[in-house]
Protein 1
Amino acid sequence: MKDIMFFDANCRLGCYFNGGPCAENAAALLKEMDYYGVDKALVRHRNLDKGPLATNQSLANMLKEAAEQRLTGVWCILPSQCDEIPEPDVFFRQMKENRIGAITLSPFEHRYQPCRLTIGKIMDAAAERRIPVLLNAFASKWPDLFRFVEEFQRNVLIYQESCGKWGSDRNIRPLLENYENFYFETAGYWVPEGIYDLAERYGAKRILYGSGFPTYNHGSGMLQLKQSGLALSDVELIAGKNLERILKGAEL
């Protein structure tokens, strides 16, 4: 399986304000990716939950240093009422100019309610353009996640950092079953034969490979996928083709 294209759906750039493992710039991340054989990555800033406007710009600056264009960025959104980010059309144009392909949110750290009243304008615009939304902020906040997915079911939603060592299938599977735009990313999903069973039940097109770097390394999730028992065509979808399709389908 050495020729499989791996497109990591869950990487972070930049160092956390009080230390810890990190890739301080694009070159450091690309070095890690090359070591494990990862072709591309979708990346967000390590500190976006602390200062989204500054870290959005910092991420854009770091991506400009990566001439190979193997990295696609993720920007954080905020409620429209405080005029901190521009109108959706302007924001999306700026995303395209800076090689940003997806958006995310950190409502609990940024102290707002993740609902239509606060972010409906930009979420609806993202739904129209099929721009993916990463839901890393909702890890283990299942009531909040279920309400959010129901309210924004037209959006392309990618749930991240979900599981911990015990897994979360009783919460993940109802969302996969009922919402066709809901995708599941595999970082930290260590359920024996779990990826195989999810793909068999809900389709390999609904699952994305993600490493969770730098919390985890790239290789552990790659090994789990390669040894999942799925057909090579399904492994290829999860490894990178699904994310590539989603990003290419976005209208920026």
Protein 2
Amino acid sequence: MSHVCVSGIGCLCAAGDTLDEAVSSMMAGQRHAGDPPLFEASHPHTFPVFAVRSFLPETAGDVFLRTSQLALNAAQQAITQAQWSGDELRKLRVGVCIGTTVGSTMDVESFYDEYRQSRDPEMLAIDCFLDSNPAAVINRHFGLNGPCQTIVNACSSGTDAIGMAAMWIESGLCDVVIAGGADELCRTTYNGFASLQINSPVLSRPFSVDRCGLNLGEGAAVLILESEQVREKRQHIAAQGYVLGYGSGTDGWHLTAPHPEGRGLKQALAEAFAMSGIDRQQLAFVNTHGTGTKDNDRVESLVLADELPTIPFHSTKGYTGHTLGAAGAIEAAFTLAFLQQQQIPASAGFSEQDPEFSVTPVLENRAISGEVALSESLAFGGNNAVLILGKGEL
């Protein structure tokens, strides 16, 4: 893969309403978790979540579900940073590729409750749902004319969306792609992860011996990817970074558990390194999936020890929660920002080494040197995806 330029980044999550706010918050060690703000559940314990607390205004004249509002907010941030106008984008082949999971699809419970009670509910909730495909919302809002795709590939969705978008650029299908991921907190995912017994009753502790599960989060991140031809005409716009490689490996081991030897993740790593031409020792750090669950952290640590034993790694989910389909995109945005600042934050929540693990995450904010880093996602269904990202020009 040639160097696909990232000209703009938009991000909002519990750590901050912009990428700069989020990075500053993480470097300060802040963890903004609390009770779910927009729904209730009947569990005896309330599991902490990482919610976007800022107000998200609805787009004038339209009503979208929260996932699409998050996605559109991040897209607007990214397009502004990339200094594109709507008129300019409409003259080019501009694609949209957004990852999500359950997203907003279950936020019509009230409609079905009324329907099952033989009432005659208003169709507004269903109409809103049907109009809220996040990629389609972005496409319509900016009046774009390229391919438009929403990727639903569990927790690797955001990573896969960026990887797919980079291939659209590489193949000549698009001049520009708006790519990323978005997911909101909702009662269905909250209850679903509780039923799997992997919601933590305390703040998550990725890679720590006393880890006991994940915290859910929400948010969105969008990258503006540009072809070399477009980039040559826009040399006055500073590159925020580069997508250098992408790999995807599906081992199909289990509906929810990773392969015990990390087979799919190893395949994804091999593909990404082969595509990028990057030597593994060039990596400045690895931004891991790092959920804080027993199985994920065990497998990810095993693969890191086997494949990248000397490379510093950390998890940022201790600051954002697990944002599901948005996680890979948010973490790609963070990875580019950390490369720019030449510093990574401590892996929040870690307290004690697991004797099963031969590698340990970064325990304090650390200066890094290097221009390349890895961001990886492990997902249900044996889906694994990784991005190799390069430092920008600022």
Protein 3
Amino acid sequence: MPVRNRLAEMHPEITAWRRDLHEHPELLYDLPRTSALVARRLEAFGCDEVVPGIGRSGVVGVIRGRRTDSGKVTLFRADMDALPINEITGLDFASKTEGKMHACGHDGHTAILLGAAKYLAETRNFDGTVVLAFQPAEEGGAGGKAMVDDGLMDRWGVQEVYGLHNMPGLPTGSFAIREGALLASADEFTVTVTGRGGHAAVPHMAIDTTLVASHIVVALQSIVARNMDPLGAVVVTVGSFHTDSVASNVIAHTVTLQGTVRTLDPALRQLAHDRIMDLVPATAQAYGATAEIRYDWGYPVTVNHPEQTAFAADCAEEVAGACDRNVKPAMPAEDFAYMLEARPGAYMLLGNGDTPMCHHPAYRFDDDAIPAGCSWFVTLAERRMPLE
């Protein structure tokens, strides 16, 4: 079954919703306009329940099918938050708020799920219940975890979870997925090196934290090079290096390093953590300094479950005629991972065409992908919970 005719008819309307969201981006949990707009639309569609405030500013809509004898409950998720980026697209509907931009396509994800919601509320051609989770704070705020912790799964008896994310570089409206690890975990660390500041002309009277921190940066590279299986995917990156002085003739007393650890394997994730905790203080001690580490465990690996992945791919093939079932995993992170830890499910990639990558100030969501995305969600509902 290809793109639904009704959804093709709704395409201009859904596009208008998406562009309105794009003009008014909001960040993390601070989504008063976005959450209210989503709730109003769900109420207008005739959803059986519309519940705001789940996970602080998330919105849940519930649509019951013509029958609910099966007892099946399937959750669809879309993220709503934008990024702290200045938009440079020059679009007529570009962000009206300086320093905020929908640079990851969450406006598109929200519009797609709203379109699917309107269709499902009109037709109700399924035996069971669809739960629609519009989530805040995907961009670093763990809004997915907040919704799960707020009782999302248990309150509505959710059995399976599905979501999608646009993917620049894949043909618009195409689909790609893989069983198992699709996206990486994302942890962060901060290292504070303390030595003894002094005059650059007499380094022997100081403990040079710049030198010590530089050796720590180099030592951290050995984790991937010498501690990890070469066939495993692990990234350890130091992205920030700050001394407490900017003078050329001063040896800094402290240096702060910040970095990230990403991997597709929970065991390697733990190993990377353990090696950082061992290497950093030992390296500092070797040069007479000390080092304190703050390690923040972030999003887990996004792991697609086998049965649900195959089913999601089957539905994508019905919509688009094909689905890449073995797309390469990637190292960005995604907090839908928390929902996949709570319930079996699958996360699908939806082609966005030849556009700049996500998080780029010139990124553009391709509205031509909307009918395919909406049709995929609808097909999931009707095939997973058939009336016959």
Protein 4
Amino acid sequence: MKLRVKAGETSFVVALDETPTSKALSKVLPFESVAQTWGEEVYFEAPMSANLEPGARQVVEPGTACFWVEGSSVALPYGRTPISGKDGKPKLAARCNVLGRIVGDPQLLAKVKSGDRIRVEAA
């Protein structure tokens, strides 16, 4: 399954993996939220909750779509976060469930600003 995310003036697609959290997310589509940023990460609340999955990670590749369990939010890192290590890879605030991957260049997320309206729907 794929999601279309419209964030401010930016639009992109997320290809979802087959995981319990991605399946739960697809069941609450469409929904709207408000973008927040943390370093080179965009995140936004989703109207669902999930448990931490066995494959949850804190350090991911840029463009990995994640679900932050504690914040009930989708996290989309595209570069360094305030707690990234010397390798510069995105380090999330906590271990997160991996949902899938942004299709294309994740650097387009740099155009998204805190407060931008977000709409998530099936692609």
